[in-house]
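User: Please predict the structure of the protein below. I'd like the answer in structure-token form so I can feed it into my own downstream comparison script.

Assistant: Understood. Taking the following sequence of 214 residues as input:
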Amino acid sequence: MRKILFTTFILLSTMLVAQEQVQFYPVMSDPLQAVFCDYASAEGEVRYVSNNHGQYVGNFIDNKIYGWGYFLSNSGAQTFGQYRNGRHFFGITITMETARVGSDDHFVEYDLATGNILRVCTPEGNPRLSAPYVPTTDKPVPLYTFQKIVYENGDTYYGELYNGRRHGYGIYYWANGDFWYGKYEDGYRQGYGALYKTDHRVFSGRWIGDSKVE
């Protein structure tokens, strides 16, 4: 089973499906997400590691970071998402000033002070937006933003919004300390993600609303 899953994952790992594009960056198709989740769950284990670089909680396979994980560096940067062979390859990275959503070479970067888009970087290395987004008559405020929302019950959302609704990738923190990273559509969890518990357990799969269906 492990060999089949791994071979399938390698074959699919280069596929990017246009219709799955949330915004400016491509994301893995649902079949590839399913293979990734199955492989991480079947072959991996969840660990919490703290060292000179920071703290990590998430999947390990063959003593390498592989699967869903969260890393908090000593500098304060936070990285959520999916890892392969020790490297983060898709998700959200948040620093003191910016939030980056996507892969290493194809991402959108937001200004945390305003929530607006700073730039979009393509695999060719050419940012499609080289300067901060300044609204003008012919260039209105972009529909996508990246913001922090605190709810009356103490929960917090930190992620992409489209026309003011949770849409794209984000992190939802519950008041009890648990959090979820993954994909939203029209205000609701809709797609693959991972739930992180305060006791360092991680549950990954596909969500529809508040329910994990795979």
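That's the full token string. The chain has one domain: 2-212.
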